[in-house]
Design goal:
The complex is a heterodimer of chains A (about 250) and B (about 120). Chain A has about 250 residues and is α+β, with helices and mostly antiparallel strands. Chain A is about 20% helix and about 40% strand. Chain B has a domain of about 80 residues. The two termini of chain B are about 25 Å apart. Classes of the chains: A alpha+beta (about 250), B mainly beta (about 120). At the A-B interface, strand 9, strand 11 and strand 13 of A face strand 1 and strand 2 of B.
């Protein structure tokens, strides 16, 4: 049984026609199911837990990266397969998984190629793609309790599960340190970055001296430094497309 | 020696890149290739290849499959395959390798033992 969860932002006039096409295509492919639309009155966690209680084997998220990220902590603890129908402005996660936008994603769901992916975990919150720390000074990283990395210049930090540098099934995450070499003038203009450093890890502690820096996802602060981030290997079963960015 | 991409782009999935603006201290055991452009102090081991760039300073014993040295290495190098010292290389330490190339201008202060293939345990 399938449960489809529609992000509140996708449940608007702008996407009404596309949602209607999606529903029709799901019926054609014989993979229709219960459709839940997120509102202020319905929490995402509640809907996912209801789906699990009702023996849904597949939970499909219809919306943007934000919906996928928001759902991850609840889905990571549920014994379900995850599908995505990307709808909205930012869909980098679906793109990396080889899932096309809108109605075309229904055919990927129907083909049902699955892959079991690692997740990252920080303070009991899971993430699928990445976290980031804005540029700060005195940033130090302790990787797998074996070595320390000190940034010699103010640097941004990305913690990535999948990216150009990282495969989401390899049992580790990557921390990418990008030193900021040219400061923005009065906060305007683009900062410039020199060559990045990349360290694969299983467990990472980020410190930033006496200054506390935010660790962010989708523009929201998840936690502040100091913080420890770990890989949760093979934690999530996801339906992927043929054109995914990993083998 | 085609251990790394010639276009200057760095690494592939699983590689470690120590950029010019970071310093690494401790026992570094890599699972892929390791590219050092910054500073490293401690030990450096991998079953794959190590490239130490022209501006890099490594104060560590290094064990790897192949090593390409263009920067400074203060420590011993145990290399199962090929060790290449570029013209800008400075190596202060003993080396154990099965294949050695030294370009004109490189500095080597230490003993050299040629082996049939030093075993790397990472």
């Amino acid at each position: 049984m399938y449960t489809y969860i529609v992000e509140a932002e996708a449940n608007t006039k702008k996407y009404e026609a596309e949602l209607s096409h999606i529903e029709s295509r799901l019926i054609e492919l014989e993979i229709s199911g219960r459709i839940e639309k997120l509102t202020i009155l319905k929490s995402l966690k509640e809907i996912i837990n209801d789906a699990v209680r009702n023996h849904s084997e597949t939970v499909v998220l219809i919306g943007s990266d934000k919906l996928v990220n928001d759902a991850m902590s609840t889905l990571a603890e549920a014994d379900v397969t995850i599908g995505i129908i990307p709808l909205g402005e930012t869909n980098t996660i679906a793109t990396a998984l080889g899932i096309p936008n809108g109605t075309a994603a229904c055919d990927v769901l129907s083909a049902r190629i699955t892959s079991t992916l690692d997740l990252g975990r920080v303070s009991n919150r899971y993430f699928l793609s990445k976290l980031y720390v804005p540029a700060g000074s005195n940033v130090t990283l302790e990787c797998d309790s074996k070595f320390h990395v000190s940034a010699l210049l103010p640097s941004t930090i990305d913690i990535a599960n999948f990216s150009e540098e990282s495969d989401p099934r390899d049992g580790h995450l990557d921390v990418v340190v990008r030193p900021e070499t040219r400061k923005r003038l009065f906060g305007f203009g683009r900062a410039s970055y020199s060559h990045a450093s990349v360290f694969p890890f299983k467990k990472l502690t980020i410190r930033s001296g006496s200054e506390s820096l935010p660790i962010m996802s989708d523009g929201e602060t998840v936690i502040k430094t100091p913080a420890t981030i770990e890989v949760a290997p093979k934690k999530l079963k996801v339906i992927v497309g043929k054109h995914r960015k990993f083998a | 020696m085609a251990m790394f991409k010639s276009d200057g782009s760095t690494g592939k999935q699983g590689d470690t890149i120590i950029g010019a603006a970071v310093k690494v201290e401790g026992n570094f055991v890599g699972e892929g290739n390791v590219i050092v452009e910054g500073q490293l102090q401690g030990t450096l081991k991998t079953k794959h290849n190590v490239m130490i760039g022209a501006g890099a300073i490594v104060k560590a014993n290094v064990e790897a499959q192949d090593v390409q040295l263009a920067g400074e290495l203060h420590g011993n190098a145990k290399v199962a395959g090929k060790l290449v010292l570029a013209s800008t290389a400075k190596l202060n330490g003993n080396i154990e390798t099965s294949s050695l190339t030294i370009e004109e201008g490189a500095t080597l202060n230490g003993k050299c033992v040629m082996t049939a293939g030093a075993k790397v345990e990472a």
